[in-house]
Amino acid sequence: MNKKITTAFEAQRQACEMLGSPLTRDVVGFCADNFAANGVIAELVRGWQGDPLNDNVPLRLAGFAHYAALRGDGIAAFYESCGGRYQDTDRAALAGALVDLFTREEKTARRFLRSAPQTNETGRAAMLLLGFSEIAKRLGLPLRLREMGASAGLNLFFDQFHYRLATDRGDMDWGRADSPLSLVAQWRGTPPALADEIEIASRRGCDLFPVNIADADQRMKLQSWVWGDMPDRRARLLAALEIADIAPPEIDRADAAGWVAAQIMARPSGQATVLYHSIVWPYLNVSQRFAIESAFAQAAEEVRSDAPLVWLKMDGRELGTIAQLSYRIWTGANGPEGEEVILGPCHPHGRDMEITAPF
After folding, report:
1. What is the pLDDT of residues 105-115, one digit of tens each?
2. I need a surface site. Which of 34, 101, 262, 308 has the fewest CB within 10 A?
């Protein structure tokens, strides 16, 4: 188990480096070193039940540090999200502050570690938008949105965001010009024209640990998962919460496999059921993945043209890899295999995408 935890630390440290978060990289690096030295981190995670990589143990620890900073702990001095700053020359001082924090707040940290990371990264909507637009154009029906691993359900409101997209054909704008949340992203390649309007019939999600956005502490935890030296991501989160506060989404506390089966088997006529997820698949175990794939295979046998089914994914097979945006569509006329459309690889935070599908 010690080797697995060490591997998880190294994989996450490299991911933080790749994604441009030196603060989180060094928080994770401290945790790795402290674990190897049998320090307080070893006391916290030794004997972890489960896979420390799939359970994101390093990010749980980093999330607690940010949570403490947001609550006013002295470690906030290193967090840009709290008005602080961090440079590589601060690494030794950061390590000392982390030893103090985890030692002083060990009981609180243990409780926090029970929580799975949930960034509810709204930047991903700038990638998902292309999928939703293509689906709406092809089917010409209102979309019945069903999000697996929805967290607080913020991306269920993708149609209420504003988008500024830099493309090879020039800038594209879509969505509400007066939206509190404006997303800026790059689409490389040749993009199609976006649907003028995407009608939403209903919005619903599921999560094993749904975030209640009416609860102040849960809102703070949600912010804590956003890396503390990426203030733009936190600003997007806060703007999306402002939108969701008006009419909070329905998020069921449920296991993904059973919930997906229930949602895609009973589809109302006159609507296109779109089951989607973003950076969720790697967190599921093999049996959950198999159950979801089996549910789609069963549902695909009985698709009618007035109740089509779509599986939209912004995901990779493994954590820390570049995601891919794709969808499989069943119209009732294209058989039980349906049609898979791969739109292209994209940044896991929704920063950019390379459109590889021919339009």
Report:
1. 999 999 999 98
2. 262
